[in-house]
Specification:
The protein is an all-alpha fold. It is built from five helices and no strands. The longest helix has 19 residues. Bound molecules: heme C (HEC).
Length: about 140
């Protein structure tokens, strides 16, 4: 095998692995949180990219796997009621491939990021562990 062909094969395998792992390489375009975001929100953005964007898209919408956006126009997450309700759903069921893959602190940070993106939480205010009574609209 020529070196360049082998290099291409290695690059393709790495890209496939990145896709499976949901790493930054697979989802470069997760939007940065707004200026003044708490470290929890910044962490939530990174974790969303790693563990959720694979199926829900960098911007919370990827109709290939799940038809509805999970924040922003057209979302249906208001049915979870509050930040705590959304946390409890994510705690139980997400990431869909292995909900035990990340801990509750990570899930709290992701919920914080999602609700900042959805306009329900201010970016500079961390969410207490397991969420709170903030309404989802
Ligand atoms: C392997 C693909 C996959 C991954 C990774 C994944 N999800 Fe999901 N998600 C789904 C599927 C499929 C559903 C629909 C589940 C159902 O209806 O039972 C769903 C549903 C949801 C819903 C409900 C939306 C609605 O309108 O009902 C939320 C919220 C959600 N996911 C958040 C997350 C978060 C946060 C993460 C990362 C921690 C994540 N998901 C990771 C596939 C995935």
């Amino acid at each position: 095998m020529k070196g360049s062909v082998r290099n291409a094969a290695v690059a393709a395998a790495a890209a496939a692995a990145a896709l499976v792992l949901g790493t930054a390489a697979a989802n470069p375009e997760v939007p940065a949180p707004p200026a003044g975001a708490s470290s929890q929100v910044l962490q939530g953005a990174r974790l969303y990219q790693q563990h959720c964007a694979l199926c829900h898209g960098a911007k919370g919408r990827d109709a290939n796997v799940f038809p509805r956006p999970i924040w922003g126009p057209g979302h249906d997450i208001a049915k979870f009621g509050t930040a705590r309700g959304l946390f409890e759903y994510v705690q139980l069921l997400m990431p869909f491939d292995d909900p035990a893959k990340i801990d509750d602190a990570a899930k709290t940070a992701i919920v914080n990021y999602m609700l900042v993106r959805n306009g329900n939480l201010k970016p500079d205010k961390p969410l207490p562990p397991g969420g709170d009574q903030t309404a989802i609209r």
